[in-house]
Amino acid sequence: MTEQLEQTPPLAPYLHPNWRKRSGLAAGFALFLLVIDQAIKLWVKTNMMLGESIKVTDWFYIYFTENPGMAFGWEFFDKIFLTVFRIIASFGIAWLVSKIAKGKYNTGFLLCMTAIFSGAVGNIIDSIFYGHFFSHSYGQVATFMPSGGGYETWLHGKVVDMFYFPIINTEWPDWMPWVGGEEFVFFQPIFNFADACISVGVIILIIFYSRSFSELLGGNKHQKQLQKDAEEA
Length: 233
Description:
about 55% helix; 7 helices
């Protein structure tokens, strides 16, 4: 028995010694963001009619919209394709988060990727469940589990958006060709908390962790280099 224990190889040098705690941290952070996202959406869905807005400041409104497309209300592909794509992408991101948690990567990088994962899952929940469990919001406040059934089938739910920041709201000068005299609004997209998690996570990833992300995608090559560095140390 002693000989077997002595012959057991040590943990791979690229495996983080606290990977279990880091995995727990990532799971807790993901759940925290998801709870915030869904709490906001559920409140808007069950308290506001579609198109209704609440003025917070001149440049910030809670404006209830729904979209079948991607983040910020963009629509490019079929709904069912988008939902399936989101699900597949989320599994891929979850796998990357697992690799980061187990690898010797910065904790900030781990939380950054976790935020992107949470944002993706937050919108997936809307797409999968909201159409089935809620009535429509046209001219009425939606109800949960309506007697006549939801407004759509599984996987066809619409994503709830509510954050609207018309930071600049003015008109184009009359002398401008084509757009003169027309309204100009910056920033027009309406988004939700999940979209914000994805956007902030991607921005931080690009600014601070692009090298770590490249190494992560390098896979075995990066792990072998870490092992080689450990052997040479």
